[in-house]
Amino acid sequence: MGRFPDGFLWGGAISANQIEGAWDVDGKGVSVPDVCTAGSHKVDKRITPTLEPDTFYPSHEACDFYHRYREDIAMLAEMGFKALRLSIAWTRVFPTGEEAEPNELGLAFYDRVFDCCREHGIESIVTLSHYEMPYALASKYNGWAGRELIACFERFCACVFERYRGKVRYWLTLNEMNTGIGRGGAVLNLSTVRGYEGPINGLPDNPAERFQALHHMLVAAARVTALAHERYPEYRIGCMSSFALMYPYTCDPDDAVLVQQRMHVANWFCSDVQVRGYYPSYMRRHFAEKGIEVAMEPDDAETLARGTVDFVTFSYYMSVCLSAHPEKLETTGGNFAFGAKNPYLKTSDWGWQVDPVGLRWSLNAIWDRYQKPVMLVENGLGAYDTVEEDGSIHDPYRIEYLRQHIEQMAEAVADGVDLMGYTSWGPIDLVSASTGEFAKRYGFIYVDRHDDGTGTFERSRKDSFYWYQRVIETNGEDLGGEVSHA
């Protein structure tokens, strides 16, 4: 097992809409998540164009990080965090996305957060847009389907780039941009919601609209990347994709070709553009076969070429198997809801197939493809946690999941992958993006908050808190499962 490099960025990742709460405080505008109801891992959450009475909207209070950030960051520092990946809520800065001047109270909040991180020696890694868009832009322009959003996003990014100079060095453009390829991502990421109401995963299929919206996102990301490079040479800009590893279910060559084609579109397309600066050739055939025409302005190609990123980040949670004969297979559930069950893997409470070795494969594939520094910025286990009578929370399942994945990260480092850091998803329990649940917990820190809207918001340390503390202290050398509360 390889040793992690000195200066490795150990930490965790959160997002504004899933943890902050204070949805209408200090001038914040309404975002798309603010009109999403709670769901469960069996029942999809909904979008409501107007707020409904007697309906639970989990982002409105979330985990109250807005008022408790000092306590939370201090606990992360107690674990030894070197980095915290977090996002800026677009609607705190520009409430509708089209204001001429930013909201000073919103900007000041993130000043306090970034200053607090610096006081504790924690590097802030900031995602500019993490499943959070002003609802006004989604309603007026149908989200990223409207080219008008490029200028709105540029204005927002230019503002925060300048404001937080000296406080933030690492920036990610748009979270899991490639999820916009699927129907659910059209709401979560693209926010193409005009005229739509109902369960998120039941969104009507409109591939042409989705790829047009993705093009606008790619152009916007390239523009702000180029802007950062021109004005702030100390900044490092990364892309962020969801990486769902796919295996051929059998040795049938048709299964292998199917996996290659699906991996191209679902996993590689967006990062290929952001790293290489142009549309990959395989997308021409995909567009032709699907009857998709993407409208592009004359200077878009130059923009994409000019705005390539410095490093590559991704999320990794699971893998699936694909077959050219899916009618013969049992499908898997989970966040991605496609593919065949892998008989060699176990699944989480939410049906996600746990595949640590697949992480090593993915890290090597990303490094081999791009030869740019890589960071794993989301990875973790959503599970039910039980608070014992004495207040303790024993989560050996989470420790084992993370231990196995970190072991494979170390193997990838030994393979030669230039791995910058690791920020596990949800170090503090937060709202699930896919279902709006609190019960699906990821954290090292337990938050007393529940799906019926009850709870004190009090924080407490799980066993995994102390385990991860030791992992960071030893730079990944000690991954033993035993836990000390000393």
TrEMBL record:
<dbReference type="InterPro" id="IPR017853">
    <property type="entry name" value="GH"/>
</dbReference>
<keyword id="KW-0378">Hydrolase</keyword>
<comment type="similarity">
    <text>Belongs to the glycosyl hydrolase 1 family.</text>
</comment>
<dbReference type="GO" id="GO:0005829">
    <property type="term" value="C:cytosol"/>
</dbReference>
<dbReference type="Pfam" id="PF00232">
    <property type="entry name" value="Glyco_hydro_1"/>
</dbReference>
<dbReference type="InterPro" id="IPR001360">
    <property type="entry name" value="Glyco_hydro_1"/>
</dbReference>
<dbReference type="InterPro" id="IPR033132">
    <property type="entry name" value="GH_1_N_CS"/>
</dbReference>
<protein>
    <submittedName>
        <fullName>Glycosyl hydrolase, family 1</fullName>
    </submittedName>
</protein>
<dbReference type="GO" id="GO:0008422">
    <property type="term" value="F:beta-glucosidase activity"/>
</dbReference>
<dbReference type="GO" id="GO:0016052">
    <property type="term" value="P:carbohydrate catabolic process"/>
</dbReference>
<keyword id="KW-0326">Glycosidase</keyword>
